[in-house]
Design goal:
The complex is a heterodimer of chains A (533) and B (193). Chain A is of the alpha/beta class and 533 residues long. Chain A has helices spanning 2-8, 20-30, 52-60, 81-99, 116-133, 150-160, 171-175, 177-180, 187-195, 202-210, 216-220, 227-238, 252-259, 292-298, 308-320, 336-340, 344-361, 371-383, 395-403, 423-428, 432-441, 470-485, 496-506, 522-529; strands at residues 12-17, 39-44, 65-70, 106-110, 285-288, 365-368, 391-394, 408-410, 412-420, 443-447, 490-493, 518-521, 530-532. The longest helix of chain A has 19 residues, at 81-99. In chain B, helix 3 (114-121) packs across helix 6, helix 4 packs across helix 6 (160-185) and helix 5 packs antiparallel against helix 6 (160-185). The chains are: A alpha/beta (533), B alpha/beta (193). Chain B: Residues 12-172 form the Pyruvate/ketoisovalerate oxidoreductase catalytic domain.
Chain lengths: 533, 193
């Protein structure tokens, strides 16, 4: 009986193409067939238009199963709908697996108008299968609340970051990557507008969401106004719902991070781990990988990035030094992107869950390879008042520590390399040297810095999966041109997102091969050439 | 009864005798063994060849001079040339790789850039402490804890932290070297499978 009740409580979302399958569905309704009550139908124009973000959104909101019903192969009115739907479903299913939600919760099917019975059977069968997996452990994440007196809160934020100290000198605008890319954009004008109480102005709000938070303005500001953190806090005030219109990729990555705030969710974050990598749950060292596994799946068809390599090779380097780290199966997003897009509440949830899980593992040292994750652990968790019973080390620091002990060398690398700084490491953490010390140990044909490098480096064009526009693109193109100008043939990176964003610009059909350059994470370059001497 | 005969050799002023004293003292006071130290000094402390002879033993030591060293740590070419042929076939030869060129040596030896590392740490005079760390890691003549303790007690007040850093540097270098040899012997020289 309890079982039946559980089955009745399931929530199944049905995306139904309005051409073939919807006609079948209507026939079921006309014939007064009992369509299972668990099914909530959403009529859509074509299965190919349901993006990964849309396929995933119901899971964020607590759905137990999602079915996407389109037209059969060759029957699509728009030609490519069925193929796109197949790809999107396959990728989303892999993401559900990584999350520990089970791929079986998402199904793709095709029904023609002549087959209403088939559709009905399908629905019953799907509900049976979802019932065997059980209810989704995801609890619908809370929406951030609008502060009662947002004006007072904004004033507090201005005071906290001492934005009043702005001298209106304009050094920020003359350095801002967005302004230099041609956007009508001025950090100081925005700051002064907010001081002047104009946060309600739509243009000011737009600018707040457009900031890359790359920190170059803070680097140049003679009054040391921490503009990125100011923007971060203002966004938390503006964020009144899950959407603000500035999210890239349909808000997929925000959904993903918020889904992970459910404590019951038991992920399978490392289900892709190659067999040659050694780990040990008893170790005192834990490796925190970050979201790269999701990036590679999500961008597989379009950009084919290899951000996962940075995790594999970080682990191989740890193994090289006989460190067999703990890996957390239910490792969650560090919360960086939520924090920087104003969703502080869900950021805190993720932070607490991560700290709790790491503390439980008994690890004394956490090694992080993602620059954003590193910043979040080292700066933002403590600032949020969270205590961590372990120390946090960036993989570059770990490598420097181990390599400086001696007897480690590097085989020659048949490449002319250059290096893309990540904003989080080079500017926010002031660690421009950490990667360069390692690069100096390598034996490439040559190493040439780009025109703008170190603390003055140009941003990869986006932050927190938001605010992607033509100016982001212009930035990326400019950056890749600088890389090409070094005459290099390998662009070494330290951040998976830099890789995703710069690769995106390389897809441009108009620039074609002009911008193409091989990219590799620093850890991969090192893992390829490191050797005991 | 296990007996270890050690010669540390170098230029006068490198702290060779102090290195010998630390090693012997660590073995006796720290590890509760017997040890003796013979130091040759005099004109050497103004430069020139210098050596410290240490014997570490589980039982009574009746004769304090080294006849056939089990361990030779050489920080000068002259010292190396003088003693290298006396080292037991299964003994350890350790050198400062920038100061000693083991020309024509057909047996295994362990090299450390101790003087260069000391310069990197900011004080060239700590090369001897780095060498002590290296000897401890490679030969295990004295235990890590005892040697580290003795280093702390033997160096001038106020420089303990720096010297411990130098000691760890040499010790880590030694461990790393042994590890590298193991890894290469087992055919895992790189990070990729």
């Amino acid at each position: 009986m309890g079982n039946d009740q559980a089955k009745k409580d399931l929530k199944i979302v049905l995306f139904l193409c309005s051409w073939g399958p919807h006609a079948a569905f209507q026939q079921l309704q006309d014939k007064d067939c009992r369509i299972p009550a668990q099914v909530k139908m959403v009529r859509i124009p074509c299965s190919g238009r349901v993006s990964k973000a849309l396929l995933f959104k119901p899971f964020e909101m607590g759905a137990d199963g999602v079915a996407l019903i389109g037209c059969g192969s060759g029957a699509c009115r728009y030609g490519v709908g069925s193929i796109t739907a197949e790809r999107n479903t396959a990728d989303t299913r892999r993401i559900l697996d990584l999350l520990g939600l089970s791929r079986k919760r998402l199904r793709l099917a095709a029904f023609s108008p002549e087959d209403p019975q088939g559709l009905l059977d399908f629905l019953h069968d799907f509900i049976e299968e979802v019932a065997t997996i059980g209810k989704s452990p995801v609890q619908r994440p809370s929406k951030p609340e609008q502060p009662a007196d947002s004006k007072a809160v904004v004033k507090e934020i201005i005071q906290k970051h001492d934005v009043y100290a702005c001298q209106d000198c304009g050094k920020c605008s003359s350095a801002c990557s967005l302004t230099l890319a041609g956007k009508q954009y001025s950090p100081r004008a925005m700051a002064n507008a907010i001081i002047g109480g104009k946060l309600d102005d739509p243009q000011v709000q737009k600018d707040v969401w457009a900031c890359l938070t790359c920190g170059i303005c803070y680097d140049r500001c003679p009054s040391a106004v921490n503009f990125p953190e100011f923007i971060r806090d203002v966004r938390a005030v503006l964020k009144t719902s899950n959407g603000n219109g500035s999210e890239a990729h349909g808000g997929f990555f925000g959904s993903l991070a918020r889904t992970m705030t459910s404590p019951e969710l038991k992920g399978r974050h490392w289900n892709w781990l190659p067999e040659d990598i050694k780990t040990d749950p008893q170790s005192k060292v834990l490796f925190f990988g970050g979201c790269a596994p999701y990036f590679d799946v999500f961008f597989k068809n379009h950009l084919a990035p290899a951000t996962l390599d940075s995790l594999k090779d970080s682990l191989r380097l740890l193994n090289f030094f006989d460190v067999h780290p703990i890996l957390l199966d239910d490792e969650r997003c560090c919360g960086h992107d939520l924090l920087w897009t104003g969703d502080r509440e869900n950021f805190l949830k993720l932070a607490k869950l991560n700290i709790e899980a790491i503390a439980k593992s008994g690890a004394e040292e956490v090694i992080v390879s993602c620059p954003e994750g590193y910043r979040t652990f080292v700066k933002d968790y403590p600032e949020a008042g969270l205590e961590m019973p372990f120390k946090v080390t960036h993989i570059h620091e770990f490598l420097e520590r181990e390599i400086s002990k001696g007897s480690v060398g590097f085989k020659p690398l048949d490449k002319k390399i250059t290096f893309q700084d990540s904003c989080r490491l080079s500017r926010h953490m002031e660690m421009t040297d950490s990667a360069r010390k390692l690069i100096d140990r390598l034996a490439p044909e040559s190493f040439t810095e780009m025109q703008d490098s170190g603390a003055g480096a140009i941003c990869c064009g986006n932050c927190g999966w938001s605010g992607c526009d033509s100016f982001s693109k212009a930035l990326q193109v400019k950056r890749l041109r600088q890389a090409k100008e070094t005459q290099g043939d390998l662009l070494v990176l330290s951040c998976p997102k830099c890789q995703v964003h710069l690769r995106c610009a390389m897809q441009d059909p108009f620039f074609g091969k002009d911008l193409e350059i091989e990219m590799m994470d620093l850890t991969s370059v090192m893992a390829k050439t490191i050797c005991w001497e | 009864m296990q007996k270890l005969e050690v010669i540390i050799t170098g230029f006068g002023g490198q702290g060779i005798v102090l290195a010998g004293r630390i090693l012997g003292q660590a073995a006796s006071l720290g590890d509760h063994k017997e040890s003796t130290l013979i130091q040759s000094y005099g004109p050497e402390s103004r430069g020139g060849a210098c050596s410290a002879q240490v014997i570490i033993s589980d039982g009574t030591i009746n004769y304090p001079y080294v006849r056939q060293p089990d361990i030779l740590a050489a920080m000068s070419q002259a010292g190396f040339d003088k003693f290298v042929d006396q080292v037991k076939p299964e003994g350890f030869i350790l050198i400062d790789q920038d100061l000693v060129k083991p020309k024509g040596l057909e047996r295994d030896y362990f090299a450390v850039p101790s003087t260069r590392m000391a310069e990197e740490l900011g004080r060239k005079m700590m090369a001897n402490i780095i060498m002590i760390g290296f000897i401890t890691a490679v030969t295990q003549a004295s235990t890590l804890d005892a040697t580290r303790d003795t280093v702390t007690k033997s160096v001038p007040k106020g420089t303990e932290e720096m010297n411990l850093k130098a000691f760890s540097k040499g010790y880590d270098y030694g461990l790393s070297l042994l590890k590298a040899r193991d890894k290469k012997a087992s055919g895992q020289a790189g990070a990729l499978a």
